[in-house]
């Protein structure tokens, strides 16, 4: 789920049901009942995972005028116009990105400066670059890159994806290969190049997070019950193990609290 950039509604992706929902936020912070639930349609070639739509992620665009929803089952990133007055979504005809068959789009990250969207594809171990027309609310494919080292053929499912505030580095977690893929992002074009694939020193890195200073990257290894800390080179984005770790039962999501002062 996510919150729109004005703090008016919560946007929810329902994985099993294959739908997305809008829940208004009341003046004192409580949630009102859903004002809209949109049922996705579609399927993919993976009979086990794509027999029906499975909405996996929903996020507002930087302008807060549109909402993107990645659907793993439908192999599609849906685009909606966000109406905060009626607390509703309106599908943008011709705006969706039809992903490569069997890709399984999972999570979305917007480039902070360029009109680009990066999508972690869970089922084919790739990251896709899409161009986003913020006037029409339309996506178009640009490029696709593997998140794995050349020659590796094991079972793998990418999970989380984040872009640094500078826009120069993109990170994707690999579950199965148990690694973080580090991509450089070209300043002018946004073209990706795989610069590093580093072990997370644990099993099943479902989620990771960049700390507010940009110096550290923390990984949640779900199946090995650990959170592991990496140091970031802020010039080239490469990661170095710090040997710092903490035991946490089945960690699946990491978030830094805003405006927190650590002592």
Describe the structure.
With about 260 residues, the protein is mainly beta. The protein contains no helices and 21 strands. The chain has strands at about 1-5, 10-15, 20-25, 35-40, 55-60, 65-70, 75-85, 90, 95-100, 105-110, 115-120, 125-135, 140-145, 155-165, 170-175, 180-185, 190-200, 205-210, 215-220, 225-230, 240-245. Strands 5, 6, 7, 8 and 9 form a 5-stranded antiparallel beta sheet that branches. Strands 1-2-3-4 form a 4-stranded antiparallel beta sheet, with no helix packed on it. The mean pLDDT is about 95.
Write the layout of secondary structure elements.
Blueprint: E1 2-3, E2 9-14, E3 19-24, E4 36-39, E5 55-60, E6 66-71, E7 76-83, E8 88-91, E9 97-98, E10 105-110, E11 116-121, E12 126-133, E13 138-146, E14 157-163, E15 169-175, E16 179-185, E17 192-199, E18 205-210, E19 216-221, E20 226-232, E21 239-247
Antiparallel strand pairs: 1-2, 2-3, 3-4, 5-6, 6-7, 7-8, 7-9, 10-11, 11-12, 12-13, 14-15, 15-16, 16-17, 18-19, 19-20, 20-21
Whole-number mean pLDDT:
96
Task: Enumerate how many helices there are, as a single number.
Answer: 0
Structural class: mainly beta
Beta percentage is over 45%
Question: Kindly, what is the distance between the CA atoms of the first and last residues, rounded to a whole number of angstroms?
Answer: 31 Å
DSSP helix fraction: under 10%
Determine Rg (CA atoms, Å): 18 Å
Low-confidence stretches: none
Outline: globular
Number of strands: 21
Give the topology string: H per helix, E per strand.
EEEEEEEEEEEEEEEEEEEEE
Largest sheet: 5 strands, antiparallel
């Amino acid at each position: 789920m996510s919150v729109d950039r004005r703090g008016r509604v919560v946007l929810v992706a329902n994985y099993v049901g294959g739908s997305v929902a809008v829940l208004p936020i009341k003046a004192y912070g409580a949630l009102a009942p859903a004002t809209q639930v949109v049922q996705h349609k579609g399927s993919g070639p993976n009979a086990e995972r794509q027999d029906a739509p499975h909405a996996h992620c929903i996020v507002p665009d930087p302008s807060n005028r549109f909402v993107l929803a990645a659907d793993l089952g439908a192999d599609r990133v849906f685009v909606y116009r966000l109406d905060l007055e009626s607390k509703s979504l309106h599908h943008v005809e011709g705006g969706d990105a039809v992903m490569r068959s069997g890709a399984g789009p999972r999570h979305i990250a917007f480039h902070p400066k360029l009109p680009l969207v990066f999508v972690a594809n869970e089922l084919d171990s790739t990251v896709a670059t899409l161009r986003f027309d913020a006037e029409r609310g339309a996506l178009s494919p640009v490029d696709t890159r593997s998140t794995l080292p050349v020659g590796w053929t094991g079972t793998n499912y990418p999970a989380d994806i984040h872009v640094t505030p500078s826009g120069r580095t993109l990170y994707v977690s690999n579950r199965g290969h148990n690694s973080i893929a580090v991509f450089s992002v070209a300043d002018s074009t946004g073209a990706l190049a795989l610069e590093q694939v580093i072990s997370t020193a644990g099993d099943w890195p479902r989620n990771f997070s960049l700390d507010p200073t940009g110096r550290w990257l923390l990984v949640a290894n779900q199946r090995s019950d650990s959170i592991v800390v990496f140091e970031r080179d802020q010039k080239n984005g490469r990661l170095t193990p710090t040997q710092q770790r903490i035991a946490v039962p089945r960690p699946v999501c990491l978030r830094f609290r805003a405006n927190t002062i650590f002592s």
